[in-house]
Predict the 3D structure of the following.
Amino acid sequence: MQSWSEIVADLSRNWPVYVSMPIIAALIGWGTKLVAIRMMFRPQRFRESASSGGRASSRAAHRRWWRCSARRSRAGW
């Protein structure tokens, strides 16, 4: 365990590191919050690529029916 004088000496040598850590963490948190809000209120539309060949859109109706029927069966309808 370090003595009080060693802790003070370390703090005086490395104070920029100790000051910058919460600032950088706050900037990262602020940036991720902005990205999350943008994703919530401006969702991207699905764009079919040539590699998908339209498979996602052709199966969408079936998936929707399957999800609704599974929910109804669990709810007892």
In short: Helices lie at 4-13, 15-41, 55-75. The mean pLDDT is 79. The CA atoms of residues 62 and 68 lie 10 Å apart.
